[in-house]
Amino acid sequence: MHDLNLTFIGSGNAFSPAGLCCNGFLVNDRVLFDAPPQALSSLNTVGAEINEIDAVVISHHHGDHFLGLPFLLLHWKWKGRTKPVQIVGPRGTEVLGKDIVEKVFPGSLRDIGYDLEWIDAKPGSPLILREGFEIEPYPMVHDPELSMCLGYKTRVGATTFSYTGDSVMCDSVLDLTKGVDLMVSECASRADRIPVHMNLVDDMPVVRRNLASTSPLILTHIAAGVDTNGMANTYVAEDFKRFSF
Ligand SMILES: [Zn+2]
Question: Which residues, chain by chain, have CB under 5 Å from ion ligand 1?
């Protein structure tokens, strides 16, 4: 693997167990996967260059993955952004995102000094971001009341990694283990069987077994008590931790 850096701006699930920030991570300092409510605060904590982020890739519209977007748009309008940005997400991301930001920070989308492009991600339709990331969306099984829940397989240069977003164990989770140099998987509990999520003791051994043994597995969207459970080449995300591979 070559030069893949992941900086976690949060590692917890929606309940912020033990005070963990909600899950999201920045790849190579340029592409943010998910926008948790505290995204702006966390990006400042890790010293990210917020106006240099080229794209935000949203997995689904649950608040712990999405509600940081208004703060990013507020920052970009008022803190001198000039560089274009792309926001990628499931069907409805543009309508919902604009609606929320205009209600909570009115005017954040008016007279902005940068190009803002909203992109619908659809399974079966790979995308190439301006930054060069090649993104392939996968349909995940999580909350049928949302427009869609997505996972992503992403190629950056010669390296490919995948991210499950939120999901139960399903065919797409297994697809996301194939042909990747690194996988980031949700793991919302240790042993509790939450109907819309995966856990450490039942599901992660399946993920680990299907993933190449040489490919690291990073567990995120965690609850207190999630550890590596003795699995090889497996890591647990931590708030503000940077992984380099
Ligand atoms: Zn969710």
Answer: 62, 166
Distance from Cα 142 to the centre of ligand 1, integer Å: 7
**pLDDT for the residue 3:** 84
> Cα of 42 to ligand 1 centre, how many Å?
20
Q: Report the separation in Å between the CA atom of 23 and the middle of ligand 1, taken as the mean of its atom positions.
A: 10
Contact 221, 13 (CB under 8 A): yes
pLDDT for residue 1:
60
On whether the CB atoms of residues 76 and 51 are closer than 8 A, the answer is: yes
What does pTM read for this prediction? Answer: 0.97
pLDDT over 80 (residue 188): yes
Name the E strands within the chain: 5-10, 24-27, 31-33, 55-57, 85-89, 116-120, 127-128, 134-139, 150-156, 159-163, 182-186, 217-220, 234-236, 242-244
Whether 2 has a pLDDT exceeding 80, the answer reads no
Residue type, 164: T
- Cα(197) to ligand 1 centroid in Å equals 8
Give the pLDDT score at 131. 83
Q: Which residues pair with 218 in a beta bridge?
A: 184, 235
pLDDT tens, position by position, 106-115: 999 999 999 9
Say how many Å lie between the CA of residue 166 and the centre of ligand 1.
Answer: 5
Confidence of residue 83 (pLDDT cuts 50, 70, 90): very high
Domains and CATH numbers, the chain: 5-244 (3.60.15.10)
